[in-house]
Structures are given as structure tokens and as C-alpha cells.
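Write out this protein's structure.
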Amino acid sequence: MADVLLPPIRYATSIERPEPDEAETIADLNRSFDTILETTSQDYSKAVRAVHAKAHGILRAELTVHPGLPRELAQGLFATPATHPVWMRFSTNPGDILDDSIGLPRGLAWKVLDVEGDRLPGAHGRTQDFVMVNGPAFAAPTPKKFAGNLKLLSKTTDKAEWAKKALSFVLRGAEAALEAVGTESALLKNMGGAKNVHPLGETYFSAVPFRHGEYVAKYQVVPVSADLTALTDIVIDASGRPNAIREDMQASMKGVEGVWEVRVQLLRNAEAQPIEDASVEWPEDVSPFQTVATLRATSQDSWAAEKVAEVDENLRFSVWTGLTAHQPLGGVNRVRRPVYEHSADYRRRFNGCPLHEPG
């Protein structure tokens, strides 16, 4: 870490630089989402999420915002010390529901309830959503690259699962070789080359930037209780167990104390921490993550039927559900708004059941 940190950069609308062809990119993304949604809804006789379709566990938790935060951290949701109910949903990223032996990145979406404040356009209810992955940067730098990656993934939807298993074995070997020399490939991981790690031991990142009240930030959720850190880097053996991750998470949540810290990484250097290139990891020596709150989940059944019905079937998670103070920033976030709404609308229509925000 630098001896003296630069002061945080204040939010201004000029911080974003939209590309002139983003409307065309949104149309491309919608076409890919439609391919995924139409294929999977016919396979499962119901519409599932176009991304992160398979959940591995759902937790009731509490978020406690810490008192005495410095001004640049005490912003938006984190401006007032309080405790809020939370839903946490752990998942993997494809839009089809695959055998767990296929190695894929982990996702964590969490919804904070009873949140007061001015809301983003179209953000109903009194909730704040955070959508995260277990990697510090997004898999594509720009909306156009995001659309290209999604088009590639959409073409693999509903293809022979045995082939995906074989490909995953090869890609995990390739990714391990890259990591052995100090690098990695987000694309390889998204195509099946990720380690089959336990979701409760992972650190999760927003990967893309957001408004943080008067400032700009990325977010991180880090396991800190001994019960969770004991699961960090644990690889789940999914041989012959298509739902191994769900089963192991369910077993792990019995009798544990789950504690995570919520951390904020403020924008301090516009060159080292770009807004419009989502693939760049913001360096921690330029701006360290700082703790603003704690998430706690006590022992519980992480796959209880009532949770699956309430959260997996009837809720949606979107970076655009929340406070104006946490407005998503950058090209990838801008295109997420219409295409994720497009996906949610498809689920509503096909299933004949409106999605809702908790009261």
C-alpha cells in the first residue's frame, strides 16, 4: 500500500463516457439472452435466469453497518449505523443448470431489505441489491466484448453435457497452467475451467464500479469467521454428484457461524482505476479495500423449500435495484440495466408469475 493515499475522487456525471453504439450492443445482448431463455425454458418447462441460473444455497442473514465510519465511507446505505435483514443467493454463472463437475466461477447476489433513500429509476421497493463474482474484475472490458462473450456462451446452451464435462477437464488444466506462472484467464474460467471451490470460503467482488454517494467505489465481501475461512480453497469433489456444491454447502451451514466483512474500494486514481474498462482490477496499493459493514448468517438449512420458493423462484437480483447513491457506473453496468430487465420480463411472462421486491 502507498504510504500516503490519494484523496478519493468525487462522483460527477462526466466520469462516464458512453459509446455511440451501445444501443446496438444492447440489441445483440438481448438476442443472446433470448437464445438462452428460449432454450432453457423449453428444457425445464419454466423460465430460469439467463445468467446464474443454478443456485447452490440461499441464506437469511443480517447486515450491520458499522458506526464511526469516516465521511468518504459513510455514504448511501452505509451512511447510518443500522442492522438490515438480507437474502444471500450463491450460484454459478451459466444460464443453464449444469452438473457440478463442470468447473465454473461462483456468484453471490445479496439483497438488503428496509433501505431508505432516493431510488434509481424503476427500482421498486425498499431494497438494495449487490451482484458479485469470485473474481476482482469483469470477464469483458466493454459492452461490445461482453456481448461477444455472451454470444459464445449462448451457443453452448443445451449442448451435450458429457462434452461440457470433458471440455471442463481440459480447460481446468489450461487454467491451472496459467495460474502456475502467475496469470489467469476469465474466459477460460467462464467456459468451464474454474476450480470447483466451496462457495462459502470465497471472496466476492462487485468487479465493476458504482457510485458511493459523493464518491465512486467497487465492493467486496470477504469471509472472516473461522467456520468460513476453513472452507477457503477447498475443492469440492463432484464425481457422480450433479448437485455436489448444493449438498456440501447445506452440510457446511449446519452448526456454523458465517461472518463476512463488506469492504469498499474508493476511486482515487482515474488512470489506475478506469471506469469504462471493466476488465481492469483496481490495484489495492493505490486504493485498499476498507471495511464498512458485517454480514452474519447463523446455522440454517441453506436449501429449505420455503427459501427456494421465496428467493430462487420469485425474486430477481439486479445492480439497478437500489439507491441513487449506489448508481451502477461504466459501460457494462449501463447495458446490464435493459438486458437484465429484458430477461426478467421473459421470466414473468413465461412463468405467469410476477417477480417482486420483499416488503
